[in-house]
Amino acid sequence: MAALSLSFAAPLVSAPAARASSSRRGMSSVVRASVKDPVVSEVSIRRRPPNGLSMHNVGTENGSPGFAFKMEAINQNGERIENTDNKPRNILEEIVWSKDEELVRRKEKFPLELVRTSMVLAPPPRDFVGAIKEQFKATGQPALIAEVKKASPSKGVIQPNFDPVKIGKAYEAGGAACLSVLTDEKFFQGGFENLELIRSSGVTCPLLCKEFIVDAYQIYLARKYGADAILLIAAVLPNKDLMYFQKIAKSVGMASLIEVHTYEEMERVLKLDDIQLLGINNRDLGTFEVSLNVTVDLMAGPLGDEVRRRGITVVGESGIFTIDDVNVLQKAGVGCLLVGESLVKQDSPEIGIKKMYGRPL
Description:
The chain has 361 residues and is α/β, with parallel strands linked by helices. Helix content is 35%, strand content 20%. Strands 8-11-12-13-14-15-16-17 form an 8-stranded parallel barrel, surrounded by 7 helices. Strands 1, 2, 5, 6 and 7 form a 5-stranded mixed β-sheet that branches. Helix 2 packs parallel to helix 6 and helix 4 (164-174) runs parallel beside helix 13 (349-356). It is globular.
């Protein structure tokens, strides 16, 4: 194993990585700070940087200036180069990696024990799945989960006059069965407090906590703030985590919406028992390309047959703007739609809902 060297230069210390490894593309050897070879994973999104944080601040507690060191790689010529493995491969991976630092801060300010204690003060959970099924039965069209969000990484600020309570009430007036509330602060300018604001305003629609969940702490936090359901993303979570997080959510009265995007993810998720809601995201989070054919194709094959046989409600996500889009997804077998951008950017979302469903104004 190559020796680990620390070279001090001004306040920055370079820590070359610890051992050589060949890249998968057959490029020259590099040294990586890794203690074991990577293994094949169920998920496409890496949970954290494979070689640890690229920058480490040391001795900065209590206002001390301290110093920093940087994790780098070394090529065959002995030159220090940036460790490209430690760069997120897409925006979803970048969001997931940011959750580690966010969760450290949250747990310091609001420990899990206090979160769970304060959950007893939250209003009782409402029937998220039941609301979806009832609306589908009553209208003959896919039920609607309308999304409350101010911004997104790809579009920036979507609704500059963002008022979560006003938007939530407009969605309910327009006929939404449930609401989805973005809680990520860094990338979507959301917050868990928006769940509480909407719930306490008198909105009766059940609420989905739209968070990038990687830790059980976030599930308890969602319930504390009044959520009735959570989102679990298969690209981020292996089946053992999906199963574990589902059980936690169920134990506190919440439903789980499991989201997939590919055939492989859907096939893997369907190995789980007790799935009630399966979301199919039409957006590729690596390229941001959107196509309703993602849902159409997945539901046209054997996996779609299994979904129908098991009575799982499919939620179509992303790329839904018109009655034609609604009809395409309904024909494919979708029983619910999750719609955000096309509605939240409108000044009168309740009218936007009626137009999207082809209903009288």
